[in-house]
């Protein structure tokens, strides 16, 4: 029987692989987020982005068109008092949060892969680079898909995030009904 290979010498300056990976992903996330934050207050695309902002600012502005994403994103624009930079930053934060939730929902994340939430947040922000940085139906669909997949992964794993299903159902109902639907339902409930 051959003797066991001696352990390689430990280099005191060597950074463990996990720490290096965390540092790289965190640095990438900071660079990506920094670039988006830098660009958040600069200019607007005069084609698609203007339509997104019009529908979000006043979802009922045009009687001939219906864009449900305007009802979904209108509260976020109102929350920041119409400030475009803050609206964009809020969209980035929501997308990164949904990506981090998806990353933490992957089964490997629970088995000691702490980078997956960071990877999820970073990946979620990349949708804004090749396209318009203002929240729109594209980013809303991306966030919705991440939340739905995270929900399925958590249900399959038997893990329940308190209130998450109820909150997601409420947001979906709010998006489907829109402002007109809520006015109709509240008028009917008050009449009872």
How would you briefly describe this protein structure?
The protein is mostly helical.
Distance between the ends: 87 Å
Shape, please?
A: flat
Oligomer: single chain
Helix % is 55-70%
Could you walk me through the main structural features you see in this protein, from its secondary elements to its overall organization?
There is one protein chain. The protein has 192 residues and is mainly alpha-helical. It is built from seven helices and no strands. α2 packs across α3 and α3 (68-79) packs across α7 (164-191). The radius of gyration is 22 Å and the shape is flat.
Keywords:
7 helices, mainly alpha, 0% strand
What is this structure's SSE topology?
Layout: H1 17-39, H2 48-57, H3 68-79, H4 84-105, H5 115-125, H6 137-156, H7 164-191
């Amino acid at each position: 029987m051959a003797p066991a290979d001696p352990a390689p010498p430990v280099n005191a300056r060597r950074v463990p692989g996990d720490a290096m990976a965390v540092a790289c992903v965190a640095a990438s996330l900071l660079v990506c987020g920094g670039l988006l934050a830098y660009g958040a207050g600069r200019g607007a695309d005069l084609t698609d982005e203007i339509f997104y902002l019009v529908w979000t600012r006043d979802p009922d502005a045009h009687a001939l068109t219906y864009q449900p994403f305007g009802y979904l994103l209108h509260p976020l624009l109102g929350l920041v008092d119409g400030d475009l930079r803050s609206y964009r930053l809020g969209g980035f934060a929501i997308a990164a949060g949904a990506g981090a939730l998806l990353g933490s929902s992957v089964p490997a994340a629970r088995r000691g892969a702490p980078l997956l939430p960071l990877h999820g947040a970073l990946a979620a922000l990349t949708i804004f680079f090749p396209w318009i940085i203002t929240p729109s139906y594209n980013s809303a669909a991306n966030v919705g898909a991440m939340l739905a997949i995270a929900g399925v992964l958590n249900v399959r794993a038997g893990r329940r995030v308190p209130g998450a299903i109820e909150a997601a159902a409420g947001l979906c109902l709010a998006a489907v009904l829109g402002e007109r639907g809520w006015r109709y339902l509240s008028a009917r409930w008050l009449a009872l």
